[in-house]
Write a structure and sequence with these properties.
By secondary structure, this protein is α/β, with parallel strands linked by helices. Helix content is 45%, strand content 16%.
Length: 331
């Protein structure tokens, strides 16, 4: 069985601290505190732009960067945030946290990468340490599923938030096997040609990022939730139709200023590839997305049960996307 690293213990400690902290005052009407369970990067432009558009429509959004999906979920459950970003299937089922996914943002496009000096193929990772985003994350699920499909068992699993952080660790040699997004895969190929091998991943179309909240919040703040869902769907559609829109949105809303203008080419290429792959949710997910997620997360061992008998309503509240698609039309 894969062991858990020191980073897992630290994440658990931070989650406990967050859960025991004095709750912030409840958000008022028109306020929405969003806990982002990752380090915002190029892949976050669609989400960040949708948030800015929701602000323009009167939703007072506060973005809370927590760098860990577990902490984002803890923040929502503990009342420190209203909405979380991640894919909390494991916690919903195994911990019974009272939250529901209300829209899909994107599907997974992850790339397992190994240092070619040490590993060449999946079987070489038998018993070896790997680094993923977070416990219960899509990156962990991909690695566990591919290990299962290739008849191996991973060794220690380290949790290292941020695809760019994992890329840099690979370049520095502090980790030898990890999983990154498309932007950081290309960066590795550019910065260290021939040093890394991308291992194959077959038939993965599960959720990468979703938005989730408590049932009570969704019921009491339907108007604000509808605005966010509509903007997520609209930005996803616009970028899929014309990937250059991602750069326009970045410039318009001054997103990710620390990256500088030199990131423009990478942004364009990333969203061109993302659009071609159909990775952005055009209709917000719902039952179809849930079915793909059930198949993936059960196969990866992160949730239990027969995918055919798992109930969408136990994980999702589709009311907001149903209203959004009725308003915007279905793609």
């Amino acid at each position: 069985m894969a062991s858990l690293s020191r980073r897992t213990i630290l994440a658990t400690v931070f989650a406990a601290v967050l859960g025991s902290a004095a709750p912030m005052s409840a958000a008022s009407a028109g306020d929405m505190r969003i806990a982002f369970g990752d380090l915002p990067g190029i892949e976050s432009i669609q989400t960040l732009a949708a948030i800015e558009r929701a602000k323009e429509r009167g939703v007072n959004v506060e973005l809370i960067i927590l760098n860990d999906e577990d902490l984002a979920t803890q923040a929502v459950v503990g009342g420190q945030a209203d909405v979380g970003i991640g894919a909390p299937y494991t916690l919903i089922q195994k911990v019974g946290v009272p939250i529901r996914i209300f829209a899909q943002i994107s599907t997974q496009r992850f790339f397992p990468v190994v240092n070619s000096e040490f590993y060449k193929e999946w079987k070489d990772l038998d018993g070896q340490e790997v680094a993923v985003q977070a416990r219960g994350s899509g990156t962990e699920a991909v690695m566990l599923l591919m290990a299962k499909n290739n008849g191996i068992e991973l060794g220690q699993i380290s949790y290292v938030p941020g695809s760019e952080v994992r890329r840099n660790a690979l370049l520095q040699g502090t980790i030898k096997a990890s999983i990154v997004d498309a932007a950081n895969r290309r960066a590795l190929e550019t910065e260290a040609p021939g040093k890394f091998i991308v291992l194959p991943v077959e038939n993965v179309s599960a959720s990468d990022e979703t938005v989730f909240a408590t049932a009570e919040y969704l019921k009491n703040n339907a108007a604000d939730v509808d605005i966010l869902v509509e903007e997520l769907i609209k930005t996803g559609r616009e970028i899929t139709e014309n990937p250059a829109v991602a750069l326009e949105l970045r410039n318009k809303y001054k997103l990710l200023p620390d990256l500088g203008a030199e990131a423009d080419t990478e942004i364009t290429e990333y969203y061109k590839e993302t659009a071609e792959a159909g990775a952005l949710a055009l209709n917000g997910g719902g039952a179809e997305a849930a079915a793909a997620d059930f198949a993936f997360f059960t196969a990866a061992g992160q949730i239990e049960g027969d995918p055919a008998t798992l109930k969408v309503e136990d994980f999702w509240d589709t009311a907001a996307i149903d209203r959004a698609v009725a308003k915007l039309g279905k793609k």
